[in-house]
Design brief:
alpha/beta, 280 residues
């Protein structure tokens, strides 16, 4: 392995999260002692102290690189990180979440040992006063995509879990296919729809290794916004899809509603709120 090559690149878009960023970075820094692991922090034009905090961590860890850019959204920040990444494998982390101590090592072991293109672990929904663990109920297993129909594979691995932050990806799979994040909202879901034809084998890990921190301010703001998000994803997907991929678009459409209704923004709301949003 050349000096400019890495086994793992951890990409973290950062935007106005100084209150949460330390916990996120501290949860990962224990695994940065491996010289073959790099962390790329993309400061997406933060107006708080997030950018300077990134620089401080980079000063303490030579494996951390910081990129400062004008605010363009999480999708653009992840694309910036992909452009800078040197690792054989890619992980995406959200800056207001945090991980368990062996998050990186466990996912890397799963994807390498089983000769997979990607691996996924279970996660916890972490609220201020409680936590729901093993949200997905995953088991330790390996599956070949060729043995499943695309629709079944999508329903099993992506429909309930279209996010990128609890997964590890083989970088060549992404780069060789020219896949990037295309839209500002729902970008994870569209990313996986594009990636699906290129996934050969996937490993699942039963351990809860990622903490998805629930904040109302980070969730969708209304069902109207979710409707618009669905339309954008479907229209963008179908522009590059085959004519018989309408079923996949329907699954994408339903996935966002499932995720939204399970989010912190909806927790505890009365049914009348949703009736009002739907009729608005």
């Amino acid at each position: 392995m050349r000096a400019d090559e890495k086994r793992i690149s951890i990409i973290i878009p950062v935007y106005n999260v100084e209150q949460y960023l330390r916990q996120c970075l501290d949860s990962l820094c224990g695994e940065l002692v491996d010289a073959d692991c790099e962390m790329i922090l993309v400061d997406d034009g933060s107006s708080d102290h997030s950018g300077s905090l990134c620089d401080a961590y980079a000063g303490n860890y030579e494996t951390i690189t910081v990129v400062h850019q004008r605010h363009a959204g999480a999708a653009a920040a992840r694309n910036t990180g992909l452009g800078a990444a040197r690792g054989d494998y890619i992980l995406f982390i959200d800056a207001d979440d945090y991980v368990e101590p062996l998050f990186v090592e466990t996912l890397l072991h799963a994807v390498q040992t089983n000769d997979c293109d990607m691996a996924v672990c279970d996660y916890a929904m972490t609220f201020r006063s409680r936590e729901i663990r093993a949200v997905l109920g995953l088991t330790d297993e390996v599956n070949d995509v060729q043995e499943m129909e695309n629709e079944f594979f999508y329903l099993r691995y992506f429909a309930r879990n279209p996010v990128v932050w609890n997964k590890i990806y083989r970088r060549n799979m992404i780069c060789d296919a020219g896949i990037r994040f295309e839209i500002p909202h729902g970008e994870d879901l569209l990313f996986h729809l594009r990636l699906l034809p290129h996934v050969r084998r996937i490993a699942t890990v039963s351990q809860t290794l990622y903490h998805y921190v629930q904040r109302k301010s980070s969730a969708a703001h209304s069902l109207q916004k979710v409707n618009a998000q669905n339309v954008t994803i479907i229209e963008t997907y179908l522009k590059g899809a085959h004519q018989n991929d309408g079923t996949m678009a329907f699954y994408a459409f339903s996935s966002i509603y499932t995720g939204f209704l399970s989010s912190a923004y909806c927790a505890g709301r009365k049914i009348g709120y949703f009736a009002g949003q739907i009729s608005a």
